[in-house]
Amino acid sequence: MVNTAQRRHRRSDALSKERIVAAAIEILDTQGENALTFRALTARLETGAGAIYWHVANRDDLLAAATDYVIAHAVTAGAGETDPQQAIRAIALGVFDAFNTHPWVGTQLAREPWQPAILHVFEGIGRQLQALGVPNLAQFNCATTLMGYMVGLAAQYAAGARLHLRATDRPEFLAGLAARWTQRHDAASYPFVHQQANQIATHDDREQYLAGIDLILAGIHTLR
């Protein structure tokens, strides 16, 4: 039999915003955005809707809080790096992995690009640019360029992963895509596409993503 103290502890735990956000993330990850309802949350947390509304005003507020939590933890990936460039690369990988693990995050950020969650990325990158010695007048453009690349491309990859099923299907899908492009468009009109067809079919998304970060960092290096 559950005693009074145990019931009180469970009820208090259910009322914490942290647990509500964690439960929302579980639903979003396993069932998708459409499955996230306050009814689903109350069932998962074994509490009443009023307890949830005490901490989050509505569903949009809950989605924003879940996105903020995921992005904040992604940015901490660069916390242990002492070299600013390596820290930026670590933040970039943290964002990439977060979008892969939580594909719904990209959808949320696309709806409201400057919501509070994105400030974690902006601040994390900005501090490292300052440590690199980037001139003050160039820091904003550098930070927004890096942030736009990280968030935009990570969201694109995550969307592709949702559309094209399991990772084991990816090589077959990309090979088919390259074949369609080269078969439907002749080499005389699209020579570059034909030259890069093999790269399209065999490239690694993570490596390509980091290569882009390195290209931007190389450009930033010229400003120092």
Summary keywords:
single chain, 224 residues, mainly alpha, 0% strand
Helix content: over 70%
Please tell me the overall pLDDT: 85
Shape: flat
Share of β-strand residues: under 5%
Low-confidence stretches: 4-14
- The rounded distance between the terminal residues' Cα atoms is 68 Å
Oligomer: single chain
Structural class: mainly alpha
Helix count?
Answer: 13
Count of DSSP E strands?
Answer: 0
Instruction: Write down the secondary-structure element order.
Output: HHHHHHHHHHHHH
Q: How large, in whole angstroms, is the Cα Rg?
A: 22 Å
What is the secondary structure topology, with strand pairs?
Elements: H1 4-14, H2 17-31, H3 38-45, H4 49-53, H5 59-75, H6 84-101, H7 104-111, H8 116-132, H9 136-163, H10 170-184, H11 191-195, H12 197-202, H13 205-221
Helix pairs in contact: 2-3, 2-5, 5-6, 5-8, 6-8, 6-9, 6-13, 7-9, 8-9, 9-13
Please give a quick description of this structure.
The chain has helices at residues 4-14, 17-31, 38-45, 49-53, 59-75, 84-101, 104-111, 116-132, 136-163, 170-184, 191-195, 197-202, 205-221.
Walkthrough of the structure:
With 224 residues, the protein is mostly helical. The chain is built from 13 helices and no strands. The protein has helices at 4-14, 17-31, 38-45, 49-53, 59-75, 84-101, 104-111, 116-132, 136-163, 170-184, 191-195, 197-202, 205-221. Helix 2 crosses helix 5 (59-75). The longest helix has 28 residues, at 136-163. The protein is flat. The N and C termini lie far apart (68 Å). Residues 4-14 have low confidence and may be disordered.
